[in-house]
Amino acid sequence: MKRKEHWDAVYRTQNGAEIGWFESEPATSLRFIEAAALGPAARILDVGAGTSMLVDSLLERGCRNVGVLDVSPAALELSRIRLGDRAPEVEWFVGDVTEFRSPHTWDLWHDRAMFHFLTEMSDRQAYRETLGHALAPGGQVVIATYGPEGPTRCSGLDVRRYDSASLQGWLGDEFQLVQDELVDHTTPGGVVQQYLFTRFRRS
Ligand SMILES: C[S@@+](CC[C@H](N)C(=O)[O-])C[C@H]1O[C@@H](n2cnc3c(N)ncnc32)[C@H](O)[C@@H]1O
Fold this sequence. Notes:
Elements: H1 3-13, H2 27-35, E1 43-47, H3 54-60, E2 65-70, H4 73-83, E3 90-94, E4 106-112, H5 121-134, E5 135-146, E6 153-154, E7 157-158, H6 164-171, E8 175-186, E9 192-202
Parallel strand pairs: 1-2, 1-4, 2-3, 4-5
Antiparallel strand pairs: 5-9, 6-7, 8-9
């Protein structure tokens, strides 16, 4: 099944609050984004945003230039409905990160639980290329993947697990690691999963 069809089926058939990666408050993402110390006009893109409430939290905190990208139109439609009157304040992009070309650059790129689904080297290279085009010089990247003790599958798909060194190796010398943390996430079903949160700065 193609990516779009897979993820659309997930979001059409599963209740948002029951999906394994659901967070009522994206606390660690917000902590990492706050540590990036950006002003309210900074451009922040949530990649593989799904139905995450990060966008709501960023708007509530006064961020004025927030964008979301996801391969699943169904997911973004649910987020649009949830945001209601605030939806037009967000830049919405339906597309695959491996092919995405942003119309402008971003100061912060956030990805929680998307990159680790890219099990093919060519897809990881394509993601890195998209990131290279989309991120402004001096921009920052917050990437959260499953950590070394995290699950090996999610949503019926294989995933890759990472430590900070392997993410650094993939991003290359152009990026410096400035923050990392292993965080346990408890799924709505009560299963504890290890995530690795990282923040890198582009030179
Ligand atoms: C596990 S969910 C995480 C959603 C959200 N980041 C969160 O933390 O709640 C992974 C998301 O990545 C999206 N996705 C998967 N592969 C993608 C790709 N190649 N390009 C863009 N989005 C993708 C899926 O549609 C899904 O919404």
